[in-house]
Design goal:
Layout (H helix, E strand, L loop, with lengths): L4 H11 L5 H13 L15 H6 L6 E6 L4 E6 L7
Antiparallel strand pairs: 1-2
Amino acid sequence: VDSGKSTTTGHLIYQCGGIDKRTIEKFEKEAAELGKGSFKYAWVLDKLKAERERGITIDIALWKFETPRYYVTVIDAPGHRDF
């Protein structure tokens, strides 16, 4: 359930060049303001206000990016039983 799926996926997207450093820094600042600094990578996929406040994924999210070799599509799904 709360094992870090969104955080791991967001970090993978960043490490593969799917999102820029400036955006991650923005998420880090915003997350820190809510006392959730470690959630900066999860916020790549967790866009809803409720997701960010509660620290859980509520809705599925899709992210597409390209590497020099591949076209990648990542789907993040809720792990919490209520969603």
